[in-house]
Amino acid sequence: MSEFDLIRSYFANLGPCRLDVGLGVGDDCALLDVPEGRSLAVSMDTLVAGTHFFSDCDPAAIGYKSLAVGLSDLAAMGAEPAWSTLALTLPSPDPVWIREFSAGYARLSNAYGIRLVGGDTTRGPLSVTVQVHGFVPSGSAVRRCGARSGDLVFVSGTLGDAGLALRHLLAGEAVEPDLRRRLEYPTPRVELGRHLLGLATAMIDISDGLAADLSHILAASRVGAELDLARLPLSPQVAEAVAASDDWALPLASGDDYELCFCLPPERAIQARELARELGCPVCQIGVIRPGSGLECRLADGSPLMLDRLGYDHFR
Ligand code: ADP
Ligand code: MG
């Protein structure tokens, strides 16, 4: 199968048709229209075989997750997803692998109304780069720099599930299907993010671990925070692992959660909880923004927890 047959078969008609796509896959460039009054939110992520996923990972999961991580970034700004582009580097043009990969990618594209509008296909060690494009009303994106002393700190979903699944896989142990799904098929919190526009003062998606990612909010906002560890939302499996070995790095620093962490003043908390209930997306208040700097984690008895590393860092 030639490069062009492959693109035509699996990528030329991926995701729903959109009126804002003048021209999609097939020419030298895509031609796209950003609606008036909106800013274009753009983010790019690369997933490398052996670093971000096992080389023998289900290709549908790789396709799904390579788009999910970008959607999580759009969610964290409050943006509405619109388009994606895909740079695919493959060791060989295996049509079965590509069909499954594109099916995983298409599943998420269709779920969020995203059209694949272009990309690049090359031969080499397996790696996937996805750029996502979304819209946000001009001037109203939720950034990392808006947290203020007294704001409450919230997180969506549960923390540490993907980290626990990865730990089991690395140890060659069996992984429960629901835990494995959290690693391979994370749910980007797109609806929650969009609805937090005008409510959240600062927001970030948790890709490297809560401690590291919340610390980015604190640095950008020039504030500190106190976390109450007893409040962290944990699945029964992660709660059990933490209870067994006091391993707080699992929910705080293992990464790949793709939940949202956001701050808002206490008077907006009721509205946020209401919103979460309507969307069917659990949120949980886990701490408070304080003057000063840095993250302080308190155990149930009030004593401080010292973390030796905040989160995943490719270059450390
Ligand atoms: P050019 O050589 O002009 O850069 P290419 O041959 O790389 O064009 O690509 C031809 C068309 O197919 C372009 O519209 C490009 O955006 C699209 N394309 C190539 N690879 C992919 C891919 N993996 N996913 C989506 N579109 C792709
Ligand atoms: Mg090209």
Automatic annotation (TrEMBL):
Enzyme class: transferase
Binding positions for ATP per the UniProt entry: G119, D120, R144, S207
Binding site for Mg(2+) 1: D45, D120
Binding locations of Mg(2+) 3: D28, D73, D205
Alphabetically ordered keywords of this record: ATP-binding, Kinase, Magnesium, Metal-binding, Nucleotide-binding, Thiamine biosynthesis, Transferase
Catalytic activity reported: thiamine phosphate + ATP = thiamine diphosphate + ADP
Residues covered by the PurM-like C-terminal domain: 148-296
EC identifiers of the protein: 2.7.4.16
Amino acids binding substrate: H52, D256, Y312
Residue ranges occupied by any PurM-like N-terminal domain in the UniProt entry: 26-136
Pfam families reported in the protein's UniProt record: AIRS, AIRS_C
Protein residues bound to Mg(2+) 2: D45, D73
Any one GO molecular function term: ATP binding
Protein residues bound to Mg(2+) 4: D28, S43, D73
Other remarks in the entry: Reaction mechanism of ThiL seems to utilize a direct, inline transfer of the gamma-phosphate of ATP to TMP rather than a phosphorylated enzyme intermediate.
Family of this protein: Belongs to the thiamine-monophosphate kinase family.
Role, per record: Catalyzes the ATP-dependent phosphorylation of thiamine-monophosphate (TMP) to form thiamine-pyrophosphate (TPP), the active form of vitamin B1.
Protein name: Thiamine-monophosphate kinase
Organism: Imhoffiella purpurea
